Amino acid sequence: MFIPKPSLFSYRFHALLTAFIGWLTFSGHSFASEVEHHQFFSPTLGYDYPYSVYLPDHYDDQATDAYPVVYMLHGSFGTDRDWVSRGNLQQVADRLIAAGHIPPAVFIMPGSRSWWVDGHNEPARSAFFNDLMPHVEATYHVGQERHLRGVAGLSAGGYGALNFALERPELFAAVAALSPASYAPLPPRNSTAWRHPAFRNDQGQFDRELWESLNYTAHLEEYRLRVTPRGTQDEGDLSPVPLYISAGRSDVYDAEFHARIMRQAMERIQPNDVRLDLYPGGHTWKVWRASLPAALNFLFQYVGQEKQPTSPR
Predict the structure, then answer these.
(1) Structurally, how many domains does the chain consist of?
(2) Helix (H, G, I), strand (E, B) or coil at 199
(3) What is the mean pLDDT of residues 41-57?
């Protein structure tokens, strides 16, 4: 019986198919990690607070050791689903965990109508600390100590993440700000901050005083006092919160310029605990997807590691 010889196209097709399946396995798609979407009533907000959660493969709420947790903040007018649907967080986390670069961890992706501030439209900052974090720690098997927590964000979320770390350094082991919208002294005119309800007063105008009082520059001195030793026998209240910054070189909001200013300001306080990476591209998900693996690798040099020393209160 005549059996036709497979064509060159057939060989190539099967080779490509095999390679694709192998890539899927390597990239973490064979992992049984889960992403869930939930909401709970927030007394601070007076309505439901949405969030998405990444649970690693073999997540066990009865495990002996609590999981590290990283809070991932979305950008202006974003949602709690952005990091997964647009940022590929699940695939990146799966891959880094499978390769042993980061430990199995829980990622919380909250949703906010504000810029993560107690602004004119909602008390987003207070809701995060007073409602979301206690809810997460009561619902999931995550650490409730500083060395098991990190915070990160992109654009307006980077603005929020840095503010959270500077205002509450006792809560976070490290922070990552991707293209942070932490513009000083004011945002550029093309920034959505000018029209965002968080910063528009009762007259519908941009509230410059509110912006300046909430931006990271307003928190630097108090943060410096908390993390800087005050004498040979005094270690300060806390060790610094290491900071990762990234930005696109063609960012339409001049994020690279503002990131460099931020790095300079932070290096005056913690010269060995700041890293800045620059990527080709603009203020886009392409840049944020590219920088996410480096950001997570940086965070987990500190999150999940031994406790950082603190002085007695």
Answers:
(1) 1
(2) helix
(3) 98
Q: In what order do the strands lie in the sheet with 243-248?
A: 34-42, 47-55, 106-110, 69-73, 149-154, 174-178, 243-248, 274-279
- Pairing label, strands 149-154, 106-110: unpaired
pTM of this structure: 0.87
Closest residue by Cα to residue 115 from 151, 150, 159, 83:
159
Residue 275 covered by a domain: yes
Contact 71, 9 (CB under 8 A): no
CATH assignment at residue 151: 3.40.50.1820
Cβ-based neighbour number of residue 278 at 10 Å: 17
Q: Do residues 55 and 108 make contact, with C-beta atoms less than 8 angstroms apart?
A: no
The closest of 106, 110, 102 to 140, measured between CA atoms, is 106
- Structural domain contains residue 18: no
User: Do 172 and 151 meet the contact criterion of CB atoms below 8 Å apart?
Assistant: yes
Q: What share of the chain is helix, strand, coil (3-state, %, to 5)?
A: 35, 20, 45
Domain-located, residue 160: yes
pLDDT in tens, 58-101: 999 999 999 999 999 999 999 999 999 999 999 999 999 999 99
- 6 domain residue, yes or no: no
Token readout for 288 is 């944020």
Range of the domain at 176: 26-299
